[in-house]
Amino acid sequence: MIRTENLTKVYRMGEVEVQALREVNLEIQDGEFIAIIGPSGSGKSTLLNMIGCLDTPTSGAVFIDGIDTGKLSENGLAEIRREKIGFIFQQFNLVHTLNALENVALPMFFAGVKRETRLKRAEELLANVGLGNRIYHKPSEMSGGEQQRVAIARALSNDPEIVIGDEPTGNVDTKTGNTIMDILEGLNKEGRTVIVVTHDAEIAARAGRTKRMRDGRVLD
Amino acid sequence: MIDKFLLAYRSIRERRARSILTVLGIAVGIAAIVALMSVGYGMEEAITGELTGMADMISVMPGKITGHTYVELGSFTDRDVKDLQRISGIKDITAMTYDAAEVEYRNKRAPVFVLGGNAKELGSFYVEPVGIKEGRWLRENDFKGCVIGDRVANDFFDDVIHVNDKLIINGEKFIVVGIFEKASTLYASDVDPHIFLTLHAAKEALQTNEIKYIMVQVYNIDEAEGTAEEIEERINDNHGLDDFANAMTMGSMIEQIGDVFNIIRGVLVGIAAIALVVASIGIMNTMLMSVMERTHEIGVMKAIGAKSSDVLSLFLLESSMVSLVGGVVGCVLGAVAAKVISFGAGTALGIEFGAVVKPEVLLGGMAVAMVVGVLSGFYPARKASRMSPVEAVRYE
After folding, report:
1. Which CATH code, of 3.40.190.10, 3.30.465.10, 3.40.50.300, 1.10.20.10, is assigned to A31-48+81-219?
2. If contacts are CB pairs under 8 Å, which of residues 160-219 in chain A contact chain B?
């Protein structure tokens, strides 16, 4: 279970303080498929970064399976990101120097998985997202939809309980967006918690539960 | 571990042009060290090597050396030479006289240094190490014969001189009976530009009775220093002066040369060190650029679970791989450059020496490359490893 407690994030940009999150309290059950929607600047990406352990709160706390992530060391956070969470970005964020197979295998490399095991699993994961014939292609040789599917395969490489998507359909056409949502739905059916941020109501409608955000607050 | 190498290798290859430039930067620094050291060792070995072959020699001069200047105080007498013959442990003594003379060959005139000594002893000093190319060495009764050095034969006059040609030395006719081979480094200045006569003939041609130089050969090299002191004492007594004679063993000359070469090497290493500092600033710059450029990539790696230590070790590995290659290339370039420089300098100066590439210099060069690489890679690598993932990912 994921729970936030009075989660607050303040960014300081020179003299100006930006309240990105204001005392957010949110509970996400294991195996849930939740969509967070809201206009840009509403704080939804910041919330996602907090849950995904990419950023630390100014005050308040994030609990993942009862663990207060604010109390973890940097290595502890890296371990959660590596083992429990799969992150999918709007910009795909693949490593350009590596081909699809190596990109998918990278999180397993950081987890210390043996090379053969790693490459075999990466191949399977790519086949599962329909890219079995493109494994040696570099990101620059792939379309946006293909890159996002590689990114999804990468997010799954250490078999995480939680999959987080920050506008995962934001940079692809509607048809590809639907394919990606199909994949995410499938992951949810496998029992994974799926959290998606979007400003597309149609996409959000496919989630089990929707939360709206505005001005750093979660609306009921 | 292999995978980290692969990852580091990928990112080096991805930025090929810049990686090559960085490798060259280090390589030039290391090559400078290796080449300069090797040339220095080569020069030292060429000179001390030949001196060691002459370690049983003592040269006696009528004057003193203060600092680096020699002040001639007069000349030796026949009595000095006779007295030296009574010192035990001496194998050979050659009394010599020398002076510049006007020499004419086929109506061309040139000033040439003429050197006279007892034919047998003088021969034992020069003939064996240098060699006679044409003709023969002087005999004691060669009152009108002379032997000439390589440059006298080939360079000093319009026409090349051969055996049996006639030279006019200070108005007296001499026949060339022999011509020396071109001498090696150590003997070049003693033999190549000189005309050799018997002592008797030289005294007459130069119109002098002065003995300006005595060469002594001892039986036992270990006793050379003692013998040198004894020589100085005897001659000083004869002339009633404290430091008239200066007897120097080759051993003490080797020591002096060693000191000089230590200074030269120090200067060379200093120059090379500057090159290396420049190179290491280059590496640091490349690595910092690499970190900046890859901020986003570092963020992605951290976002998918890389620890700070993973990022640190990746970047350190990258800079050490670059410096390892730089070190190897530098050692090879340096060794080649040393050979080329020593060949070029040897040809230009007409001396013969080869660079000595010592394994410890190569190992040292590699070690310096690695240390420089790791040290200058460390700051950028740490900077990379400390980036916040969310800010790094956002960076485009």
Report:
1. 3.40.50.300
2. none
